[in-house]
Give the backbone structure.
Amino acid sequence: MRVVILAGGVGSRFWPASTAARPKQLLPLAGDLPLVRETRDRLEGLVGPERIHLLAGRELGRRLLEALPDLDPGNLLAEPAARGTGPVLAWASHEIARQDPDTVLVSLHADHVIEPADVFREQLARVAELARAHRRLFTIGAPPDRPETGYGYVRVGDPLAGEDDAFDVERFVEKPDIETAERYLADGSYLWNTGIFVWPVSLFLDEVRAHTPEIAPHLGLLDAGDAEAFFGAVEPVSVDVGVLERSRRVAVAPARFAWDDLGSWEALARTREPDRRGNVAVGRAHLADSAGCVAWAEEGSIVAWGVRDLVIVHRRGVTLVMPRDRAADLKVLLADLPAEIADAPEDGEGSGGTHG
Amino acid sequence: MRVVILAGGVGSRFWPASTAARPKQLLPLAGDLPLVRETRDRLEGLVGPERIHLLAGRELGRRLLEALPDLDPGNLLAEPAARGTGPVLAWASHEIARQDPDTVLVSLHADHVIEPADVFREQLARVAELARAHRRLFTIGAPPDRPETGYGYVRVGDPLAGEDDAFDVERFVEKPDIETAERYLADGSYLWNTGIFVWPVSLFLDEVRAHTPEIAPHLGLLDAGDAEAFFGAVEPVSVDVGVLERSRRVAVAPARFAWDDLGSWEALARTREPDRRGNVAVGRAHLADSAGCVAWAEEGSIVAWGVRDLVIVHRRGVTLVMPRDRAADLKVLLADLPAEIADAPEDGEGSGGTHG
């Protein structure tokens, strides 16, 4: 087994703590370590560090490697350009298949919260067996516990022959509106699409060749060793749209672990222990006579008094205050923000790559 | 005429912008200059700088003088201890009377907002004449335009003989509850007690001797030149309680200028021009889809989105967020705040004196 960690990402959802040069995978959003470090540490005992590959732009990759001291810099697959998850996974699969054509590849995001780690590792090992035995492209689906409109869903079909923990995918559905999300939750046959994928690397490349005209005609450039030209030639497409929704060999395994993609400041209230009034505070904060607030004080102190359901963030001179229920729409605010406020400088700033 | 500027004060009402070492008179709350500088500049043309005296503790006095480059350090009357406005004004009056026994003394606070300045100067000159002609201790009373519970009031009595702009004081009343304040506003015969006093210095000392047992027995120590012993011996008392409420020689002149004592962050919304949604911002602030907010960004930027009627302050690493209607009670919050948050360090910090 090998693992690729998709570690690009633009970093707007946790602004001003996250920025283009310091996206959320570099932030200690769930605990004391950056999310990418937790993601790597969660794999400990499942695969050795030499079989963990990091996918990101070169500059961001350099920062990520600083947070991952046991990974060899050679394990960074530095994407020449951002063209979505389809091309970058085709490229990574091609590179890995060259060394290890029979491996099962696990594709993960660097910025998700998953626990417990041992259950996660056991299930990945099990799904790798299933993917190899049934020759399928697997996605892990998380049972919903709320009518979430921020995630895509997978509708579960029949069980794979002889299995009770793996199913055909009846269909993938995009982020729903709230009424649809409530229906999915009540229905019971819909799972959140976690974006955690498990597949034999050779099968994935076969399916790309068969179903993905945005990518397939250009794979010869990779055979010729010209990744630069490949990224220049492909059309941007996500792996979900370009491969999974078109392939007949997809399957889903319901997650036995808790999963959150930390889509907004709101998510911090789910992944960190709140106080008895439902406040979550990271850093030095004093939330007096306040309830339901999320406070993030990266430097200095936040003092709130008599307020409810606010997100209050301070980092590098920028203070953000908004109601929690606007957190998911933060990009609407950022679109109108003057550049001199939006772009807080980072130490040794450079541009981070993105998978879109 | 001489002027004393009462410039002590503990600095909790505009926390975290104001602190003990940097009370609000040192902040540019109303414009671009510190309030104490505006207070001094407002006197330009009425009295020369050699006749303006500053009353504060020694350390705070040093900081205040930095903001007042044309005042001679000898004009600082550095009170040895904080014993309220009664003893400090008795001491200042005694010192001034020694040089200038026939002068009329104007006593002002360093942290009030007053405009227009020319009307203010004209009225002080007029009230000084009235005080000398009628031999009275004058206070200036400001006509209320709202049922303010944060100020004391003066009930206006009969006009002084032959005058239409000066009246006996029927009585002084302490800060009222809201029902009483509404009654005072409707009644029309109550004025806010601004704490701006005008009196012949000799009359003030006579009235202290006659009515203020907390101070009078110790005036001999001042005759002997021992201010230290005087401040050690007196009982703390305000000039309002210790002298004005007991004297039969008080009078009031209704202010012809606008006056605000800037009692809380809420006051900033009265003294600064709001945007069309009622937001007042000082420093770099972006208040999107927000209304009725007061933002003070002393460093960095404040970004608010979708919030109403909040006070948001950032200074030296401390961020404060509270509803506007709690601003007047800020000391309640400060009483419970951990010291490592409440006491933001100042450059070259020392303790400021206070008149109580």
About this structure: Residues 79-260 of chain B form a domain with the Spore Coat Polysaccharide Biosynthesis Protein SpsA; Chain A fold (CATH 3.90.550.10). Chain B has a mean pLDDT of 93. DSSP finds twelve helices and 15 strands in chain B. The longest helix of chain B spans residues 117-134.
